[in-house]
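Dear support,

I submitted the protein below through the web form. The confirmation email said the job was done, but the results page showed an empty box. After a refresh the structure appeared. I'm attaching both so you can tell me whether what I see now is the final result or a partial one.
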Amino acid sequence: MLRSAAVLFLTLTSFVAAWSTYVVPHSPGADDTPAFLAGVANHTSNTTILFSKGVTYNIFTPIVFPVLTNVEIAIEGNLTYPQDIPTIQGSTSSVSYVSDLFSFSGGTNVTLRGTLDPEWGWVDGHGQAWWDANNQVNRPHGWAFSKINGGVIRDMKLWKPIAWNFATSGSSNIHAFNNRIFALSNSKNSFPFNTDGFSASGLNMLFENNHIQNGDDCLTVGSGGKNIHFSLLRPLGEGGHGLSIGSLGKNGAVADVQNVLCVSSCVKNTLYGARFKSWTGGNGLARNVTWRDIFFTNVPFPIYVTQNYWDQGIGPRPNTSSTNNTHIQDFTFQNFVGTIEDVPYVEGSCVSNPCWYAVPGATGKEVIILDLYPGTATHVLAKRIFAVTETGARVAAMCNATAVIGDVGFKCQNGPFIPTLAGLL
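What the results page shows now:
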């Protein structure tokens, strides 16, 4: 027994000794990225990479992490981007830069964590200046947590990011929880364009208990997303575009999204609640997608499904005779409760006339809009949908009976929202 205990002690001692901590150096007033990259090259496994509490690090140029194995990145100090737009634009236009201020080259068992300390662990993007100037040239993304197998993103706090925040392209087995994203403008005359919260495009991912205030999708699943679970118990999606699938099928691309569950979420003052968007002329299939237990407040489009997504920045909505469309199958919208904002207004992302989100023929009273092409949707069901309009007007729906096969849970018409028996059970 003593021999076994000794072997165990030596094993544990060896493990502890093998784990190292790399304290990121800081030079006041200077760019901390070069020194960080020089040091981290020697700490790619069994390491805690520590941004120390009490220090504000200057991330003036992009960080590309090497391939990591068993590494924790601990953001216990604050990180700040350059405050002036030209400095960031200069770094984003370099040949080696691939559009993210923090990008991962791949790895196994990687944790990116902040801290619960309210004063420390913040990443300050100084995005307000970009929004005020409506400048979208060479805008960097935030964190590309890519090609990671077995990853955790937790307790991160992002303040006024310039644009997109977290992306998980090519990753698998990811758990992201207790993260905060604050991307709300101080001015009614400027809008935080493209400040998407989480962009999920990988396999086996759980996102829960995140708090997001932004100007675009709170959460979105891109092509390649499979087995994605959003369980967001905190107030979510204030000022943004809700819980989205897509956009899919741009330039005719073949999309593949499967097994997505969005559950127990609150959206407030968002443009959308639950949304599916695919480009005109897209291809592929999105299947087995459920939004359940969604509570919404002052949302113009609580449930919105479209195969006519387009880019307002490049011209008017396209007219197409293409027979290609991204098909949908087994979509469920269940237990939606809330208020529809039916008072006329213009959302901050509108820069065209009509606005990019305008739906021809809509009254603004719709709790659900199915903007689909004939024969492209199978097994779509909206059940236990309870909504009132802000003005007290009768709740409506938009639906083309030739587009969806089967009972959709309400009378499929452009008119009053009338649940069927399947929509009440």
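Response: this is the final, complete result; the empty box was a page-load delay. The radius of gyration is 23 Å.
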